[in-house]
Design a protein that fits this description.
Blueprint lengths: L5 H7 L1 H31 L18 H32 L2 H12 L1
Helix pairs in contact: 1-2, 3-4
Length: about 110
């Protein structure tokens, strides 16, 4: 078979040509958007550097964030302990199957 030049092929099959051009444009757009999104996600989501600083500085080098991290870990531990203590005391003093079931769920979760 002979190869038909592009302009003649476009005249013979205009819908196919339009679909091919549209597919090419969309493929280029998606590839460019993927690269931009990956760059932004890497900068702001998947790294542990401070995005507000001009240079690359570890996030925990900021004293306020380091203190906040320690405080949040302590608060989370206290809350877990409080929930476990509450369900344990409820199970001891209520003597209902619902209270014992709640303790069972808290311990297994």
């Amino acid at each position: 078979m002979q190869s038909i030049p592009g302009i003649v092929q476009g005249i013979r099959d205009p819908l196919g040509t339009i679909l091919q051009l549209l597919t090419g444009v969309l493929s280029h757009f998606i590839a460019t958007a993927r690269a931009d999104i990956n760059a932004e996600l890497s900068r702001y989501l998947f790294t542990t550097v401070e995005p507000t600083a001009s240079g690359i500085r570890p996030l925990t080098a900021n004293p306020a964030i380091a203190h906040l991290n320690g405080s949040l870990a302590l608060i989370a531990d206290v809350l877990v302990g409080a929930v476990l203590l509450y369900t344990s005391l409820r199970s001891i003093f209520e003597h209902t199957s619902h209270a014992r079931y709640a303790l069972h769920i808290v311990i297994r979760a």
